[in-house]
Amino acid sequence: MIPRAALVQRTLVSCPYGTSAKAVSKKAKPLASQVLTSYLVQTNKPPWTSYFVKYSDVVNDQSLMSHFNWQVGDCNYHVLRTGCFPYIKYHCTQRPWKDLSREDKLIRAIKFFNFGIPTLMYGLSAIILINHKEIVKTPYGDVPIYFLIEENKGSLY
Fold it and tell me: DSSP 3-state assignment of 130?
């Protein structure tokens, strides 16, 4: 089975009245989880990080995951993830594995009961507040990720 991110879509584009037509290739987007892993590896598995990625730049394969463990090599991360349109926000902290299912359910319930309005407002305000961008190299191409402030790589705080 071919992963969704590996598919290449070909679309036939035609002009009105059939005057000309051409095939346009659209490369598939990487999975959000691939961007997460690639960034953590690229930055030598930092103690923590916090970034935004645009929904339009990735395939959102981690929807309905709000607080979870993410293994990268020998390091485990506790990941807080939320959709805050037009971005997905990730906050990752290197910590030992722990069952986070209760916290995950609680966070999802809070998001549900407040109709996602605070996360939408966070995303819209992030459009104005973001002031740093980095490029993550993935097998499916480069993906820009965004930060409210530039991180001091490797810092504990």
Answer: coil
